[in-house]
Design brief:
42% helix; 10 strands; two-stranded antiparallel sheet; alpha/beta; TIM Barrel; 288 residues; single chain; globular; eight-stranded parallel beta sheet
Amino acid sequence: MRSLLFVPGDDEKKLGKALASGADGIILDLEDSVAAERKSAARVATRAFLVQNREHRGPKRFVRVNPLASGLALADLAAIVGARPDGIVLPKAAGADEIRALDHYLAALEVREDAPAGAIAILPIAPETAAAMFSFASYAGASARLCGIMWGCEDLAADVGALANRGPDGAHLEPFRLARSLCLFGAAAAGVIAIDTVFTDFRDDAGLEREARAAALCGFAAKAAIHPGQIATINAAFTPDDAAVAWARQVIAAFDDKPDAGVVGIDGKMIDRPHLRTAQRILDRAGR
């Protein structure tokens, strides 16, 4: 996945447009974008959308449920697991204990709904609270369902009392750069993809492109979006270009020719085994 588009779970018009957005994944939202009095209606609409489009070969379908601590998550899960989403997005995730708890809930509901065991993935959003900043190391080995880790900036900024999370140049301020970096390292340690947070100014395409390309250079595999108009820019930023693919193929070919070598020379530069891993990752992303 390169792009994931958030869509309100109670907005049938936006849900319909999401399938044609070009996003690799859509996140049907039952949390922040749905008012309290609309939660039940959103569950019904989201379930209906998933059932109606089960055979559609479009983007992967995730559902963002409410936080486990809210008391609403079980009702969300009970309503939508039978519609067989590809994954559950867990907001305000607090570490491995919550991932394991969600895994157990899903396992029980999959039995109840006669759904394939373990088929529904888990994608946590962390850190959205200050306490969650200290939990990234716990995700490794928490659940076989874990498919990635996304970081969230807006809720984190509110939790620490920040008046802003970006500076005048549009870049994240230091505390939030730390959160972003910890997400990247935590995901790598857990063996899953890191997903960059949303870029909220959906009219600033140049700013979105700068941020998405910087994230891709650092090692993020995807970025979340709040508007369909952001998808093309995000997909382009996270798709390796022809030059990167050519370099990757050259590196892999060089090590294929010398499988016992620790270092090879390419265009006058010494290339070692870590570069080989980078080359393989580039081709994997280009294939996806």
